[in-house]
């Protein structure tokens, strides 16, 4: 029986997960099927209850990451501390939840967050913003993290999770956006594609504004985004969310093949290159 996997969420038509997972399956000689399934918020349990024994794992995207956390029979340590689940793997006890977004962000930023005491600004207050907070602080507890959010309540929930784990973060409203940007060594946007376009227009007109660090845009559907272009115009580095997508998928494949997020895949570099090639990046 062919093993079934899928990425689930809404909207889902833009997802590149089927492309990169299928490319990895070819490298790893896995006769698996990986699809995309549109599931709206509040419908994940209903979907899980329809799955037969051929289903072994799910990649979970918005708006289902918190719902997946609630439904998981067990959580890996990162999903437990973040309360965010982007991977469900079937076990004898039920569906175990993992958070591979943290690994994906850490791998995408590599040395940028691992040394010194960088000032990191995170835009947004949803599940991915929480993962970004922990990706930074677990890599480098000396980092100074500021969350700039429009939803103060959600941002406070993220701060509470950070405090429970022994970390401290600042919260600011979007009124402080430009001042916060100017002080940041790294800016991570977890906002939907296009959400920063109006701010980017203002940045493009203001040559007195001088950001100084790297910009990482987790949204990848339109790259470079207008905000990323404002960075590039000032000869500053901008990183696409495709990088996070690839590395979090590698971590998912570790889970799907071995149940262990820390167990490297056979010939993992070849898997990464195949994923990049499937997206036309090499």
Automatic annotation (TrEMBL):
| Annotated SUPFAM superfamilies | Aminoacid dehydrogenase-like, N-terminal domain, NAD(P)-binding Rossmann-fold domains
Residues of the Shikimate dehydrogenase substrate binding N-terminal domain: 7-88
Concerning InterPro entries, the annotation shows: Aminoacid_DH-like_N_sf, NAD(P)-bd_dom_sf, Shikimate_DH-bd_N, Shikimate_DH_fam, Shikm_DH/Glu-tRNA_Rdtase
One GO cellular component, as annotated: cytosol
Gene Ontology BP term (one):
shikimate metabolic process
Q: Name one GO molecular function term.
A: NADP binding
Domain named Quinate/shikimate 5-dehydrogenase/glutamyl-tRNA reductase is located at 118-192
> Pfam families annotated for this entry?
Shikimate_DH (PF01488), Shikimate_dh_N (PF08501)
Q: PANTHER family attached here?
A: BIFUNCTIONAL 3-DEHYDROQUINATE DEHYDRATASE_SHIKIMATE DEHYDROGENASE, CHLOROPLASTIC, SHIKIMATE DEHYDROGENASE
Put simply, this protein is called Unannotated protein
Please name the source species.
freshwater metagenome
| Upper taxonomic lineage | unclassified sequences, metagenomes, ecological metagenomes
């Amino acid at each position: 029986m062919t093993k079934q996997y899928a990425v689930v969420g809404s909207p889902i038509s833009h997802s590149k997960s089927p492309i990169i997972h299928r490319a990895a399956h070819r490298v790893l000689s896995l006769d698996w099927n990986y699809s995309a399934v549109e599931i709206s918020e509040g419908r994940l349990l209903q979907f899980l209850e329809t799955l037969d024994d051929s289903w072994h794992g799910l990649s979970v995207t918005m708006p289902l990451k918190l719902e997946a956390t609630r439904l998981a029979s067990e959580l890996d340590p990162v999903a437990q501390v973040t309360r965010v689940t982007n991977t469900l793997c079937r076990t004898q006890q039920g569906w175990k939840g993992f958070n591979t977004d943290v690994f994906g962000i850490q791998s995408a930023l590599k040395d940028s967050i691992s040394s010194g005491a960088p000032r990191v600004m995170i835009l947004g207050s949803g599940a991915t913003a929480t993962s970004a907070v922990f990706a930074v602080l677990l890599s480098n507890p000396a980092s100074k993290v500021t969350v700039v959010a429009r939803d103060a309540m959600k941002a406070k929930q993220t701060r509470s999770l950070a405090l429970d784990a022994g970390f401290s973060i600042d919260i600011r409203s979007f009124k402080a956006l430009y001042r916060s940007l100017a002080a940041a060594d790294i800016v991570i946007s977890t906002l939907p594609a296009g959400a920063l376009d109006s701010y980017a227009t203002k940045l493009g007109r203001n040559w007195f504004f001088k950001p100084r660090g790297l910009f990482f845009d987790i949204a990848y559907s339109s790259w470079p985004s207008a905000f990323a272009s404002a960075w590039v115009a000032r000869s500053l580095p901008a990183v696409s969310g495709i990088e996070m997508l690839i590395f979090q998928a590698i971590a998912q494949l570790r889970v799907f093949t071995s149940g262990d997020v820390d167990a490297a895949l056979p010939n993992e570099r070849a898997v990464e290159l195949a994923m990049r090639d499937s997206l036309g990046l090499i």
